[in-house]
Automatic annotation (TrEMBL):
GO terms for molecular function: actin filament binding. This is Arad-like aldolase/epimerase. The lineage of its organism: Eukaryota, Fungi, Dikarya, Ascomycota, Pezizomycotina. GO terms for cellular component: cytoskeleton. SMART domains: Aldolase_II. Residues 31-215 form the Class II aldolase/adducin N-terminal domain. It comes from the Eukaryota. InterPro entries: Aldolase-II_Adducin_sf, Aldolase_II/adducin_N, Aldolase_II/adducin_N_sf.
């Protein structure tokens, strides 16, 4: 039984759709990618020209789609995205603007290292930036945080400035590990990955919210209020039940219908 089946009572929800052509699949994926950017804009994850989402192309897995440099997240559409290869060359899509060089180095290394990763999100969101200064993972403080239990979460405990070298991108991919889906980047921000852009985007919003909750808990704990953690067995069980790519894909779907 899948996690989605376990929490469903009655008629099951539809899963990730299948497509009759690569073109239809690509269009669906890019529409959801643009929708994720609009959600990020509404949630205040924008910071200057920083931040990017990448999406592996369904036809050529050695290329991925990314957003153009300098265009506001809330204005992005599927037709704005750029297709780049692992050498950093634009090979398709809308090439009227450049891609983000730092974004290419981060995402290119991730997609190379993790064939199971089809999408990745990275922005300088406010609570993620704040919590990243501690170079600590979010703790198992509540049911929602259990999504990031164990090897699912990593910490990149270095900061080398804006990523402009292949080596830095490769170090980030190594730090995430073979099973990681979420990472705290010290003095930098957050990064999440998934099998779909829906999953990666949902995990990002959940990690950002978890950082916010963690900061509130730390403030209370500083006044002498003890923390009560979720036990390891309970956290592992909860993680198993919620760490489902299909469920994560369905959660943010209504947001993609927003103008």
């Amino acid at each position: 039984m899948t996690a989605l089946e376990a929490i469903s009572q009655g008629t099951p929800l539809a899963g990730i759709p299948s497509f009759t052509s690569i073109e239809k699949q690509r269009h669906w994926m890019l529409e959801h990618m643009a929708g994720a950017f609009r959600v990020f804009a509404r949630k205040g994850y924008t910071e200057g020209m920083s931040g990017h989402i990448s999406l592996r192309d369904p036809e050529d897995p050695h290329t991925f789609w990314t957003n153009p440099l300098g265009k506001y997240f809330g204005l992005l559409t599927a037709g704005d995205m750029i297709l780049v290869n692992y050498e950093g060359k634009a090979v398709g899509g809308n090439t009227s603007r450049p891609a983000n060089a730092a974004g290419f180095l981060i995402h290119g290394a991730l997609h190379k290292a993790r064939p199971d990763v089809n999408a990745a999100c990275h922005t300088h969101s406010p609570y993620g930036k704040a919590w990243s200064t501690f170079a600590r993972p979010v703790e198992m403080l509540n049911q929602d945080a259990c999504m990031f239990y164990g090897e699912t979460q990593a910490v990149y405990d270095q900061f080398g400035g804006i990523v402009f070298s292949d080596e830095e991108g490769e170090r980030l991919a190594t730090a995430l590990g073979p099973k990681g889906k979420a990472m705290i980047l010290r003095n930098h921000g957050l990064l999440t990955v998934g099998s779909t852009v829906d999953e990666a985007a949902y995990l990002f919003t959940l990690l950002e919210r978890s950082c916010e909750v963690q900061l509130m808990v730390e403030a209370a704990a500083a006044n002498g209020i003890p923390k009560q953690y979720v036990g390891d067995a309970e956290a592992a069980y909860t993680h198993k039940m919620v760490n489902d790519a299909v469920s994560a894909c369905l959660i943010p779907k209504p947001f993609h219908l927003e103008d």
